[in-house]
Amino acid sequence: MPAVTIRALGAAVMIALGGASASPAGPVVVELYTSQGCNSCPPADEILGQYAANKDVVALSLNVDYWDYLGWRDEFGKPEHTLRQRAYQSSFGARTIYTPQIVVQGRQAVVGNQAVQVMTAIDGHLRNPSDAEVTLIREGNDLVATISPVFTNLAGPATVWLIGYSGPHDVSIRHGENAGRTITYHNVARTLDQVGEWDANSSIEFRAPIDAKMRGYAVIVQKDLVGHVYGAQKIEF
C-alpha cells in the first residue's frame, strides 16, 4: 500500500440543500472481472476497451486467478481481485462467481460479454447524480484527492479505494482455452488499496505517491467495502 496522508478539511461547501438542483452525474465505475484463461472473456475485454478512454466512465479490468489451472497463468491475475468479486457475490446474494462479469457502480452485475446489457447498465447509472464529488490532481510526484459530500444524510462510513492501472497491454496467449490468440487488456488494475474511510458528511483530502509505471489512478468511494459507489474519479498521465 502506498504511504497515504489523510486530513479533514472541515465543513463541506458542496452540500446540496433541499430545493437545490441535483449535481451532475459523476463518472460511473465499471469493473470487469476477467481472465486470460477464459474463452468467453475476449469479447468482454473488447467492450471494456470501448469505455476505457470515456471521461464519464471509470473502466477497470480486474483479472482474477481462479482459471489459472486450465493451463495458462494470467499475468495480471491477483487473489485480491478474486476476493473482491467474492465480496460482490455475497453482497448481491449470488450463488457463484464467474467470468466475464461486469459490476456497474457497485450496484448491478451483468454478463461482461453482452454489449447491450453493459451499455444499458452504464447509461442507467449515468442519469443519477453522484453522492460525493471526487477531484484528483497531480502535485509533483504525488496524487492529491479531495472528497466532499454532495447531499446531506449520507450513511457512513464509506471506504476509499485507490487503484493504480496500466495498459493497454497486448498479450499473446500460448496455452489454455485462448491459446493462439492475442488479446488487448485496457486499464488493468495493478494495485488495489484501501487507503482510508470517509464519514460521508465532511470533506477530506489525501495524498499518495505516484508510481511512474502506472498509466493512471482511480479513486472509488464506496459504501462499506463493496456497496454502492458514492463517487469516483480518474486521472491519467
Précis, in short:
The protein is of the alpha+beta class.
Describe this structure in words.
The chain is α+β, with helices and mostly antiparallel strands and 237 residues long. The protein has one domain (5-236): Immunoglobulin-like (Sandwich), CATH 2.60.40.10. It has helices at residues 42-51, 79-92, 115-126; strands at residues 5-8, 28-34, 57-63, 101-104, 108-111, 132-139, 142-149, 158-166, 169-172, 182-185, 188-198, 204-209, 216-223, 229-236. The strands form four sheets. It has a four-stranded antiparallel beta sheet, with no helix packed on it. A four-stranded mixed beta sheet has the order 3-2-4-5, with helices on both faces. Strand 13 and strand 14 form a beta hairpin. The longest helix has 14 residues, at 79-92. 41% of the residues are buried. Mean pLDDT is 92; it is low at 11-23.
The percentage helix is 10-25%
Shape: globular
CATH fold label: Immunoglobulin-like
Determine Rg (CA atoms, Å): 18 Å
> Structural class of the secondary structure composition?
alpha+beta
Multimeric organization: single chain
Q: Strand order, main sheet: write it out.
A: 1-12-7-6
Number of structurally distinct domains: 1
Report the portion of residues in β strands: 35-45%
SSE arrangement, N to C:
EEHEHEEHEEEEEEEEE
Number-wise, the strands total: 14
* Superfamily (CATH H level) name: Immunoglobulins
The N- and C-terminal alpha carbons lie at a distance of: 20 Å
Give the biggest sheet. 4 strands, antiparallel
CATH class: Mainly Beta
Low-confidence stretches: 11-23
Number of helices: 3
